[in-house]
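Shipment paperwork, digital attachment
Item: protein structure file
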Amino acid sequence: QVQLVESGGGLVQPGGSLRLSCAASGIIFSINSMGWYRQAPGKQRELVATISSGGITNYADSVKGRFTISRDNAKNTVYLQMNSLKPEDTAVYYCNAVPSRKSWGQGTQVIVSS
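Attachment content:
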């Protein structure tokens, strides 16, 4: 059974930074592409960053140049470094495989507000 536990969210002012972490279990982490998804109030969940098993990264245009995804296969953990945060980044952030599995974690709330 896949378990995903996200952490690191919080309240931050515009222009600030946060680092999200996601610990995964129940999947062969090292061979899966992983991604960070987010869901803002009233909107559909969207994929914002992906990292392949080999470390190749891709980003949604809305976060390119500000967010960095990374992974530590030894710890079964994926990270999202978020810099220059904007109010429109406010959302619940989730990690999952790419393509996503049925099971989702509880997510971690990010609020960007002055």
